[in-house]
What we know:
The protein is of the alpha/beta class. The chain has seven helices and 17 strands.
Amino acid sequence: MNKVFLKDLQKKPSGAVFMSGSGTNAEKILDTHVRLGERSAWRPALIVTDRPRTSRAREIAGKYNLPLAEHGIVSFYRAHGLDKVTLETTDGRRVRDLWTDELRAKIAPFHIDFGILAGFVPLTNLVGELPCLNVHPGDLTFEKNGRRYLVGLHSVPVELAILEGHSALRSSVILVQPYTPGAAEMDSGHILGISEPVGIELQGHTVEELRAIFAARRNGHRHGANLDLLYALAEINQERLKKKGDWSLYPRVVEDFARGCFAEDENGALLWRATPDAPFVRVRTVEYAANGCNPVFG
């Protein structure tokens, strides 16, 4: 039996937008909702942030006249005797669970049906009980040795794509899975959609030159630890991908998700339909192109 990810398709679902930083993806999603008006498939109910002092959450909540839930994670960890926000230690995971419990209580009165992670940094197992979408700066359909290869945080997937010699990048929107301490694979949820290709610009440099730079590194792909040419080009291309990939893809996937266009079959495979009254088909993902949606099979 097919399982649509949203529990109740008889009403317009309510969504919470989770953000930690500038919130540009959040703005694009909310702008699309406003532009569509009554034709939008969902109802924004709440802005959530873990960084009340440094994010634009208050500004964005005010701009769109939405309630705001603030739950600072840095101060929470410090209040529990930890100077570092981490999941790498037993104490860190214990405090994260406590933080998540309080966050759950803060959002409970708003009766959220799904979450939209728009640059939300902390991993939280709220995603185990609330379907949540996230956008990723890499084509998660690309695999090596049977595993998704362009994974990781920040500009790491862009570095990996550059070093592989790819000529273009894609954004991916996934259905987020709960985190498992020590798990070997990141970004493992269903790939609901991918953007059209966005060309990589190396500004006259060669892949061989960049591979040599990577080979000389001491910190591998650790974000922010390598202020070299490869890092700089990855940051530039990630920003281009956000503007040409994320901003086109993410709002459309949110609308389709809210319409009930995605489901899972009894074997856990992803299903998609172009409209709520169409039959589901089994897909690997869906490419959101300028001229429409193209299911990707296989």
